[in-house]
Amino acid sequence: MMWKTLCLVTDSRMPIVCVISESMAPTFHRGDILLLWNRTSTIEVGDIPVVWFEDSHLPMVHRVIKVHLFSKDKQRFLTKGDNNEADDVTLYPKGRTLVSRREVIGFVRLYVPWMGWLVIGFQEIHWIRYLIAAIIGVLCL
């Protein structure tokens, strides 16, 4: 119930994401938790959108470095990780050079450093799952 409320308030299908790489360092680090807001209508250089391409397994959190206005309601933009040397064109779907607004699941509005390490631990260090399950099992006895 709380998750659905947060989704409605932020207008994002995934209002909380965990940073899993160092591509945005020093702004964000691996393990940071990001709170998103998707009620932004105009995209500006410097904004940090979370982009999720249709066939991609994970979202991408990178900064807007260039905005193209095609009409009043149609913006496209180019992104780049703060810690990357080149823009993100090679990360976009084949044949694409810009991101559209509909591919954005939210813009970063708040972050909590290091709180996502639990999520990363569950995904990458499989024995942690069993350890936590065992601890819960013992506590329930």
TrEMBL record:
Query: What SUPFAM superfamilies has UniProt attached to this entry?
Result: LexA/Signal peptidase (SSF51306)
Primary residence: endoplasmic reticulum
**Which GO MF term does the entry hold, naming one?**
serine-type endopeptidase activity
Superkingdom is: Eukaryota
Q: Indicate yes or no for the key word Transmembrane helix.
A: yes
Q: Name one GO cellular component term.
A: signal peptidase complex
Q: Which GO terms describe its biological process?
A: signal peptide processing
The way it spans or sits in the membrane comes to:
Single-pass type II membrane protein
Query: Would I find Membrane among this entry's keywords?
Result: yes
| Main enzyme class | hydrolase
| Ranges in a coiled coil | none
Quickly give the catalysed reaction: Cleavage of hydrophobic, N-terminal signal or leader sequences from secreted and periplasmic proteins
Peptidase S24/S26A/S26B/S26C domain segment(s): 3-89
Sorted keywords for this record are: Endoplasmic reticulum, Hydrolase, Membrane, Protease, Signal-anchor, Transmembrane, Transmembrane helix
The protein's Enzyme Commission number: 3.4.21.89
Q: What does this protein do?
A: Catalytic component of the signal peptidase complex (SPC) which catalyzes the cleavage of N-terminal signal sequences from nascent proteins as they are translocated into the lumen of the endoplasmic reticulum. Specifically cleaves N-terminal signal peptides that contain a hydrophobic alpha-helix (h-region) shorter than 18-20 amino acids.
- Assembly and partners? Component of the signal peptidase complex (SPC) composed of a catalytic subunit SEC11 and three accessory subunits SPC1, SPC2 and SPC3. The complex induces a local thinning of the ER membrane which is used to measure the length of the signal peptide (SP) h-region of protein substrates. This ensures the selectivity of the complex towards h-regions shorter than 18-20 amino acids. SPC associates with the translocon complex.
As for family, the record states:
Belongs to the peptidase S26B family.
The name this protein carries in UniProt is Signal peptidase complex catalytic subunit SEC11
